[in-house]
């Protein structure tokens, strides 16, 4: 297996690092070329970040245009997320044995088609279906991009390389989401889909030009990927990711009405709100990549505990604009810090199924997206108020801390079984 798929310093049962040559050892590619290739892959994360998060800042515009309620609008978020949950493993399996660059381009093409359908969807039901289709290639693309970046970077810098790919998603929340939120407010929320299509086409061109061809391990097979999913740690890790990230989405899915109706912020400042959250994501993502190269599970449990604390603080101070913004930033940073560690942990947990294991991080992340939006809609419908989703999210993150402790115990009990 490629060295980037596991942690040789802690698991002697994994194959030796010399079994697969790293891309950095190929004289055709310098470190600068590899860095450019990783940036090209991260552009895909940027496009995905825009479509995944801009809808939250434009929720009120979407609701008005489609003639639906805010909880129904939350289902537009859930539909995309469910597409990721379904598509990540299904589209990753056939990619396990394919050349990775060409498969990444195929997935980006499917992403463009889904957004074209969203752009012209005539009603709410069609939009739900189009959002589901748009989400299908999301997780599989991140999986193949993360594996390409990790193999290029080598075993000692793999989490940083994964963080760089995920960083495109985080940076989208600083630049792309605020710009698209502003454009959607000024010219119509469906401009979001047109902008994402352009970003995806630019990504396809960059990946085709700058990313090297990269074959999977000669031992890779679809059956091998399926057999590798027997790992208990993998499924516990997936549960951890779903529960842990669901709190963040319970809050962020309804950030627009919370800031305008609870904090009494002028709607024109919402692009700055989502931008601030994005800055937190960028900071957390790269801190998380650095920390995960030191201790994967240590990063997981600390990040999860911080999410729980900051969610409570956000919910209890949401009526004070300055404090709400501060704790929103800290929720974004702590949640994003968790992401590279969870991606690395899931790959490590199923070393014989790296492609599907990598994709399941995004299935879990978007199952959390769907669950968070649904739970938020439920408590709002129950009349508990717009702060209630944040309190629900804090409880979920607290449960995540307990699961993280169990994962650490399980890993120490069976270190050699991965």
From TrEMBL:
Pfam families: MFS_1 (PF07690). The keyword Transcription does not apply. It comes from the Bacteria. Residues 1-12 have a biased composition (Polar residues). Keywords: Cell membrane, Membrane, Transmembrane, Transmembrane helix. It is found in: Cell membrane. Residues 37-412 form the Major facilitator superfamily (MFS) profile domain. InterPro entries: MFS, MFS_dom, MFS_Efflux_Transporters, MFS_trans_sf. The chain crosses the membrane at residues 34-56, 76-96, 103-122, 128-149, 161-183, 189-213, 234-254, 269-288, 295-315, 321-342, 363-384, 390-410. The keyword rRNA-binding does not apply. Residues 1-20 are annotated as: Disordered. It is a multi-pass membrane protein. This is MFS transporter. It comes from Nesterenkonia aethiopica.
């Amino acid at each position: 297996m490629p060295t980037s798929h596991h942690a040789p310093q802690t698991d002697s049962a994994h194959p030796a690092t010399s079994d697969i040559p790293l891309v950095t050892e190929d004289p055709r590619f310098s470190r600068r070329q590899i860095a450019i290739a990783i940036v090209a892959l991260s552009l895909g994360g940027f496009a995905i970040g825009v479509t995944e998060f801009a809808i939250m800042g434009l929720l009120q515009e979407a609701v008005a245009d489609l003639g639906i309620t805010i909880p129904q609008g939350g289902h537009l978020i859930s539909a995309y997320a469910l597409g990721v949950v379904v598509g990540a493993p299904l589209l990753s399996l056939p990619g396990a044995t394919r050349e990775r660059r060409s498969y990444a381009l195929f997935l980006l093409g499917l992403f463009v088609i889904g957004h074209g359908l969203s752009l012209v969807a005539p009603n709410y039901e069609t939009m739900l279906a189009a959002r589901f289709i748009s989400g299908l290639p999301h997780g599989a693309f991140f999986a193949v991009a993360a594996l390409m970046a990790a193999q290029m970077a080598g075993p000692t810098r793999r989490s940083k390389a994964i963080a760089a790919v995920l960083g495109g998603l985080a940076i989208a929340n600083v630049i792309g989401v605020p710009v698209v939120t502003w454009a959607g407010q000024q010219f119509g929320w469906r401009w979001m889909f047109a902008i994402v299509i352009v970003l995806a086409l630019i990504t396809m061109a960059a990946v085709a030009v700058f990313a090297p061809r990269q074959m999977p391990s000669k031992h890779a097979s679809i059956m091998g990927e399926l057999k590798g999913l027997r790992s208990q740690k993998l499924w516990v890790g997936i549960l951890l990711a779903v529960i842990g990230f669901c709190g963040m989405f319970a809050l962020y899915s309804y950030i627009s009405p919370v800031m305008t109706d609870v904090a009494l912020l002028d709607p024109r400042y919402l692009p700055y709100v989502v931008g601030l959250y994005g800055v937190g994501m960028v900071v957390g993502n790269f801190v998380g990549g650095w920390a995960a190269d030191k201790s994967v599970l240590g990063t997981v449990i600390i990040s999860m505990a911080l999410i729980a604390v900051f969610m409570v603080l956000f919910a209890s101070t949401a009526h004070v604009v300055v404090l709400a913004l501060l704790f929103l930033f800290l929720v974004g940073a702590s949640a994003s810090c968790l992401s590279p560690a969870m991606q690395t942990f899931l790959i490590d947990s199923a070393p014989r199924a790296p492609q599907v294991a990598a994709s399941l991080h995004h299935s879990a992340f978007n199952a959390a997206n769907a669950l968070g939006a649904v739970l938020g809609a439920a408590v709002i419908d129950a009349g508990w108020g717009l702060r209630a989703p944040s309190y629900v999210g804090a409880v979920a993150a607290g449960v995540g801390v307990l699961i993280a402790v169990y994962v650490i115990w399980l890993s120490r009990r069976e270190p050699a079984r991965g």
